[in-house]
Amino acid sequence: MFSVGAFLAGRIIAHLDMDAFYANAELVRNPALKGLPVAVGGRRGVQPLPGQQFPTLAQYQGRGVLTTANYEARALGLHSAMPTMKAAKLAPNAILLPADFEWYKTLSRQFKAAVGELAPNVEDRGIDEIYIDLTEETDGDFEAAIDLARRMKAAVTHATGGMTCSVGLSENKLTSKIASDLQKPNGLSVVRPAQFQEIIWPLRVGKINGVGPKAQEKLKLMGVQTIAELAAQPVDLLRERFGESYGLWMHESAHGIDRREVTLYSEPKSISRETTFEHDMHVRRHRDNLTQVLLQLADKLSQDLARKQRLAKTIGVKVRFSDFKSLTRDTTPGEFVANADEIVQAARACLKKVAFDEKGVHSTIRLLGIKASHLITPADAAIEQAARETRNAKGQAQLFLDLEDAP
Ligand code: DCP
Ligand code: MG
């Protein structure tokens, strides 16, 4: 018989986010920490006092911030991005451990692989979160998706030696991301299409991934604090105040519309353009020609990016000398790069890092190339930008001071 249900079935997308990831990662290899308040911050760590099993916040001196805290420590008021000295005042007896990124990356690979075995359409969103498109596995049936989500949660716990995660289920990425946060830790939250208004509308606009502190501030001045209030704004007003595309995006988000697909990792990771010269070029004598080549390469690369609708986080250059030795240098400017001028500027910054010896063999070049990598869609760039603003507002800048050589 012809099944209308299957025909009309919408998508089902899960968002899975690990609970107190770095802190719980420490508990996996040190079960004696179970039940105790644990914070993670800094690289060096502090020494336990004589007679103490674990170092505590009381011993900390410095300007670092916490990367995270487990839920026992959160009950004492600790949270990510909190200055460690402030945390020490609040909870001097909470345990403070140094961050060990290699260990967290190992567990990250393990939980992602475990989920991938149950549902292969996994999009990697960073160290502790993924989106999974469950439409095919479940035929668009939420009951089947809940069952699968329970099995995914169990598989994650098994693969990581006991860690928990929280999952949101809905028809799109935006809603699932909000949902996964609703019942942390160890939660499973479902927002069926008909429940969007009931569950999501009462929440604050900041819960929408992509509405950062600046937009929240502006909305507040318009009297908009909840998603329901945002949904009630005329789309034209939002467009006028926030720009065509961001205004429309806000309007659609408040109405639960998000067409983004779960993208697997077959995406282009980088795009590059390079030229081998007919005659080797000298870095000083042929400076003008080299500049011309650089501008042409940047121009082509910016067109490639526009065609693929991507922005780049990282720009690199490749130089091959006349003795065929090659080297690459790259830079991540902090802003997303798309147009030719920005590419040239970043490429010049890379070339400054190359040690040309103006007399020897490394003064003449046979090949010059530019590469754009860490590519991102404009929609994801907006979301990331908002996330950065949030982190900055919470003092993430200090975190980088403390973790200068973190990956
Ligand atoms: N992290 C960080 N600095 C921040 C926020 C987070 O270094 N300002 C790191 C530590 C976290 C990990 O990223 O463990 C994942 O971030 P989440 O925001 O998912 O936070 P948690 O997983 O720690 O907690 P939750 O249970 O709220 O997801
Ligand atoms: Mg998390």
TrEMBL record:
Gene name of this polypeptide: dinB
E.C. designation(s): 2.7.7.7
Co-factor binding details: Binds 2 magnesium ions per subunit.
Family: Belongs to the DNA polymerase type-Y family.
Principal cellular location given in the protein's record: cytoplasm
Binding sites annotated in the UniProt record for Mg(2+): D17, D128
Function: Poorly processive, error-prone DNA polymerase involved in untargeted mutagenesis. Copies undamaged DNA at stalled replication forks, which arise in vivo from mismatched or misaligned primer ends. These misaligned primers can be extended by PolIV. Exhibits no 3'-5' exonuclease (proofreading) activity. May be involved in translesional synthesis, in conjunction with the beta clamp from PolIII.
CDD domains hit by this protein: PolY_Pol_IV_kappa (cd03586)
Keywords of this entry: Cytoplasm, DNA damage, DNA repair, DNA replication, DNA-binding, DNA-directed DNA polymerase, Magnesium, Metal-binding, Mutator protein, Nucleotidyltransferase, Transferase
Assembly and oligomerization: Monomer.
Organism: Limnobacter parvus
Pfam family, one: IMS_C
Protein name: DNA polymerase IV
